[in-house]
């Protein structure tokens, strides 16, 4: 892990512009709330926030990603508007070692579905339910400093079945007031990069101000960060000269 983890926070940035109830909860956008919270976490620096409508590259230029150790991603109503070329660019950087943290409704984002290779669908219900997130991998770096569970008083329910490949590590399982359960904290390795999906984060609930959520996300950024000085080559060269001589066949 680098001494200071450089984090870029990407948010679709549409809800707070068109829905007053969202702007009331997140007046500076979800990206603004995450930037304020994560910048206070030890070992992290937020190098940039970026949004869908920032420019034709959605704020994710090659220059920005080259200086990013971990990218966080929140989207919901405009997944289809993210340019395929930018998805390919982010995908390449993940395979080369950049960490990716996908939040809440980002499960339907192009980049998450591309990395997972599945539809990433799930059940859902908006009923402001209590949620209890149980830690099922105690001792994992992502849940360092947290107890047996996290509790959120009002959330949107996501329920199984969640159409994802088997996680390399399952960190959190949610229980909801209505009786549903969900795999809410999942880790995968993709090429040289690490991917973490974290379920909580609906746009009308102040979840990204919660101290335990922010601590967990800070932990996740440090866990997912591109190791200092690391390199991961995607090249598949033809090796004409073998390592050991091969006798000529008669």
Description:
This protein is 23% helix and 29% strand. With 250 residues, it is of the alpha/beta class. It has a nine-stranded mixed beta sheet.
SSE layout and pairings?
Elements: E1 5-11, H1 15-18, H2 20-25, H3 29-38, E2 44-51, H4 62-66, E3 70-74, H5 84-95, E4 99-103, H6 110-116, E5 123-135, E6 149-159, E7 169-176, E8 181-190, E9 193-198, H7 211-224
Parallel strand pairs: 1-2, 1-3, 3-4, 4-9
Antiparallel strand pairs: 5-6, 5-7, 7-8, 8-9
The second-level CATH architecture of the domain at 5-117 and 184-224 is 3-Layer(aba) Sandwich
CATH superfamily of the domain at 5-117 and 184-224: Class I glutamine amidotransferase (GATase) domain
Q: What's the helix-strand series? A: EHHHEHEHEHEEEEEH
Compute the number of helices: 7
The order of strands across the largest sheet is 2-1-3-4-9-8-7-5-6
Mean pLDDT: 95
What is the CATH third-level topology name of the domain at 5-117 and 184-224?
Rossmann fold
| N/C terminus separation | 53 Å
Which percent band covers the strand fraction?
A: 25-35%
Percent in helix: 10-25%
- Give the oligomer, counting copies of the same chain as homo and different chains as hetero: single chain
Structural class: alpha/beta
Gyration radius (Cα, Å) is 19 Å
Q: How would the global form be characterised? A: globular
Overview features:
7 helices; Rossmann fold; globular; nine-stranded mixed sheet; alpha/beta; 29% strand; 250 residues; single chain
